Amino acid sequence: MKNYENIRTYFSVFLGNDADAYGDSYPEIVDSSIECFGGIDENLINEIDLFLADFPTNELAASELNKITENRIGDCAEYLPDLIAFLSWLSAYMKQKRDEGKF
To answer: N or C: which end of the chain has fewer CB within 10 A?
Structure first.
């Protein structure tokens, strides 16, 4: 099993119980995380893309992400509209920010 340490840390810190401290919406939270990192975390983007390739269905992805985060952030199947769509958006949004050079 791969480690997915960057995903575990990111979800635990920025998308866990205290997510509202970083913003009121996912874009605001991600923007705050980018500012905290001082830029885009390429390792996180690569890990998300690898995770999506390894776990291509919502059932597999939610089960694995729950294991990775040790259920500390609640049931990962509850990301809307679904976990695969959320992770795909997260990767694409970070790439967009990187390409825009805003962070």
So the answer is: N
Query: From CA 24, how far away is CA 33, in angstroms rounded?
Result: 13
pTM: 0.91
Beta-carbon contacts of residue 90 (< 8 Å; ≥ 6 apart):
26, 30, 48
Q: Within 13 A of 79's CA, how many CA atoms are on the CB side?
A: 23
Number of domains in the chain: 1
For 48-58, what is each residue's pLDDT tens digit? 999 999 999 99
Among 89, 86, 91, 65, CA closest to 76: 65
Residue 103 lies inside a defined structural domain of this protein: no
Q: 67-88 pLDDT, tens per residue?
A: 999 988 888 888 889 999 999 9
Domain that holds residue 14: 5-98
Q: Which two tokens stand for residue 6?
A: 């960057």
